[in-house]
Design a protein that fits this description.
This protein has two domains: 132 residues, Glutaredoxin (3-Layer(aba) Sandwich); 44 residues, Antioxidant, Horf6, Chain A, domain 2, CATH 3.30.1020. Helix 2 crosses helix 4. With 210 residues, the chain is α+β, with helices and mostly antiparallel strands. A hairpin with a 5-residue loop joins strand 6 and strand 7. Bound molecules: benzoic acid (BEZ). Benzoic acid binds next to helix 2.
């Protein structure tokens, strides 16, 4: 059965551009964004990897490690990294798994045979420090991802883990949030001292907690 939200993700070992990786050791106590791309030396993937490298500071600020993957060889990755640096003006600053034997791709269901039975689709897994799967998104090969959206989800997950709130449509860092319906008004008074606006008893909007 494919991995589902809330599952503890499986560990693996695999070669990478930064040496052999034991996934649990690599993750440590951080969040991880594990993502696959279909193939080295392809245009969309080249732009994606450059964009992720440029977001390094944003990932670090959130305690997130990044790990890329395709079913290409280490030699292929190493050659392609030079192209990424040349065309995207940034050196890759996170490991890229060389999953030639498809060990990780199969474990994480990154090959969707009715789409392509050789290459991985564009999978994204957000994994929390407890190694639980918190989000998956799957994009088709011709569609480049928006990694700012993935950062936005990390912000929402970290905020809603710390506070009894949920994030409304199109929420972004600093916007108002929703008090969980499971919190009584009585309890909410202590948790949200600046108050809230109740549009309905189940729709209470408050400032984002610090
Ligand atoms: C790309 O990364 O450009 C790409 C890869 C596979 C299919 C289509 C596009």
């Amino acid at each position: 059965m494919p991995l589902q939200l809330g599952d503890v993700v499986p560990n693996f070992t695999q070669d990478s551009t930064e040496g052999p990786i034991d996934f649990y050791d690599y993750a440590g106590n951080d969040w991880v964004i594990l993502f696959s791309h279909p193939k080295d030396y392809t245009p969309v993937c080249t732009t994606e990897l450059g964009a992720v490298a440029k977001l390094k500071g944003e990932f670090e600020a959130r305690g997130v490690k990044v790990l890329g993957l395709s079913v290409d060889s280490l030699a292929s990755h190493e050659g392609w990294l030079k192209d990424i640096e040349e065309t995207q003006n940034v050196a890759l600053n996170f490991p890229l798994l060389a999953d030639e034997d498809r060990k990780v791709a199969n474990l994480y269901n990154m090959i969707h045979p009715n789409e392509d039975n050789v290459f991985t689709v564009r999978s994204v897994f957000i994994i929390d420090p407890g190694k639980k799967l918190r989000l998956t998104i799957t994009y088709p090969a011709p569609t480049g991802r928006n990694f700012n959206e993935i950062l936005r989800v990390v912000d929402a997950l970290q905020l809603t883990d710390r506070n009894k709130v949920a994030t409304p449509v199109n929420w972004k860092q600093g916007d108002d949030v929703i008090i969980l319906p499971s919190v009584s008004d009585e309890d909410a008074k202590g948790m949200f001292p600046s108050g809230w606006k109740a549009h309905k008893p189940y729709l209470r909007v408050t400032a984002q907690p610090k």
